[in-house]
Amino acid sequence: MIHGIYIIEASSGMCLISRNYGDMELDEGLVSSFLTALQQFSQRLSSKESQSTILREVEMKGYTMVYERQENTMVAASADRSDDEKVLRDTLTRMISVFNQRFGDYLKSWSGDTNPFKEFSNEIDKMTLNGIIAELAVPKPLLKKKIPKTIVKMGMFLDEDSLKVANLCDGTKSKEEIAEETGFTVEKVGEMLEKLEKMGLVEPNPGETYSNMVKILYDKGLPDQEDQELRRILRMKPDSAHYNIANILHHKGLLDEAIQEYREALQINQDYAEAHTGLEAALRAKGLLDEVIQEHREALKIKSDDASAHYNLGATLYDKGLRDEAILEYREAIRIKPDYAEAHNNLGVALEAMGDFKGAVEAYQNFVKFAPRGQAEHVKQVRQHLRELKKLELQRSI
Fold it and tell me: Are both 102 and 185 inside the same structural domain?
């Protein structure tokens, strides 16, 4: 996490504006003086031909101080060592550029009044996502099932140290935190976790950092035009950023924008099944059934045994009037998941529309058999329809 942001006028060493996040607070005056002196010292040691040797990062106990300079302005961030340095530097570089564009002329004749810079606070919060922009999703292993002590006592599979580590895997502790609590080295804990994962006892839990970012976007009512900066920041993250932004857009009813984001996610990762599913839903809402069918088929190339994907494709084909093809997809969904109540129901509808009353009766009966309790009213309606359908079938056979 970024604990603090400091924008400094390099000549005087005066802090123009600062923002603090989290619990750790540093005196902005001390930070400004320290960084100004450090950079001046670094510049004196560095020749003009070797500007790359100028210090731009200082390791402190428990955190890192990273800073960038542009013209006569410096911007610095105190952040956790585990933060993504590239994302942090990219954010600082953009921040100082925007700041200079806005206040560069004012600083040329600056009299020492820092009040005009206060309005930039909101920009800093947006650019840093309130301090979490550079956080990495630190894996926090989760124990999938309780391990009986008898396994250890009998000398089977695990030793007592591994059991101790396994019992601390509650999805809230990182590898480093487990090491600190047990007194083992991080390397030893890592080896134990790897063994536990191979045994299927522990699974990696990516943590909540990324979902927190998405929540911040959603809480702000994103995506609106004034929040393009936050959307740009999210794109510094993996392809799931586009997928999450698309979901927010879809929920807000901005279908064209959602479709674009789903497609961008799929350009990065063609095998992103969830993005295919999201795109299908958005296209369906737009009434673009031909494109929906195409996306269904693409998704099934990735995961052919997905019963719901076959069911959704069947529903779309039926809406297009392609009943024979729809029936094939419903049957495939049922083959994969025999108790798929909705697929049985839709199969009955399609067969009835094709005049296959006998097949429709069987499908409806299977729906009644597998329907969940929450569909009691629909089950009642289907039973009534079954009685009528059986009469029609009987009349046809006479």
Answer: no
H or E stretch including 58? strand 57-59
How many structural domains does the chain have? 3
Amino acid letter for position 195: K
**pLDDT over 50 (residue 50):** no
Determine, yes or no, domain membership for 216. Answer: no
For the ranges 166-170, 308-312, 320-324, the maximum mean pLDDT occurs at 320-324
- Cα maximum dimension of the chain: 105
Average pLDDT over the chain, rounded to an integer: 79
Q: Distance (Å, rounded) from C-alpha 388 to C-alpha 392?
A: 6
What are the φ and ψ backbone dihedral angles of 170, each rounded to 5 degrees?
A: -105, 10
Q: How far is residue 318's CA from residue 292's CA, in Å, rounded to a whole number? A: 12
The pLDDT, as a whole number, for residue 55 is 44
Q: Which domain holds residue 336?
A: 305-398
**CATH assignment at residue 314:** 1.25.40.10
Contact 5, 76 (CB under 8 A): yes
Whether residue 238 has pLDDT greater than 70: no
User: How many residues are listed for the chain in this entry?
Assistant: 398
- Is 382 within 8 Å of 360 (Cβ atoms)? no
Based on the fold, state whether residues 192 and 77 are members of the same structural domain. no
Question: Both 16 and 120 in a single domain?
Answer: yes
What residues does 178 pair with on adjacent strands? none
In a domain, 365, yes or no: yes
- Across-strand partners of 250? none
Give yes or no for a contact between 158 and 152, defined as CB atoms under 8 angstroms apart.
Answer: yes
* Calpha distance 359→158 (Å, rounded): 55
Residue 289 phi, psi dihedral angles, 5° rounding: -65, -35
Q: Model's pTM, two decimal places?
A: 0.45
The CA distance from 338 to 344, in Å, is 9
CA distance 43 to 39: 6
